[in-house]
Each structure stands twice: as structure tokens, then as C-alpha cells.
Amino acid sequence: MQRRYRHVKDLKPRESARTIAFSDSALAGKLTAMGVLPGALIEMVRPAPFGNAYYIKCDGIRLALREEEAGSIMLEV
Length: 77
Hints:
single chain, globular, SH3 type barrels, alpha+beta
């Protein structure tokens, strides 16, 4: 059975999900240094006003992610 997942940019404001992996290994190092680890609870605070960025809360810490960073984080469905 294939496991289903979605990305941070698919979340609606105040919706949350757990991180399972990263699709881009180059960005994985940067994201883990920022505190986004597999198993962390990600909550969408809101998308940026002009797009291309997202404000999230990762285990209680607020972060701003570019669209490519948010797209590389895979979340549980």
C-alpha cells in the first residue's frame, strides 16, 4: 500500500500535521537546522500576503518558509 502525504503549502490556516520526510535533500539540512525535524508538528499560521512564502509554527516556534522550502516538507495525511 502506498503511503499518502501532502506538503506544507497544502495546509489551510490553523490546520496542522506531522512531518514525515523531506523531498529535497539539499533543503533537508537547512530545514533540520531551523528545527523542522521528522515527527515535528507543523501548523500553518498563514500564507504571506503576496504569496511565495508561508508563516508556520513548528513545535511552537514560528518560522517563515519560502515556497520551495515549504514544498519540500512532506506531511502525514
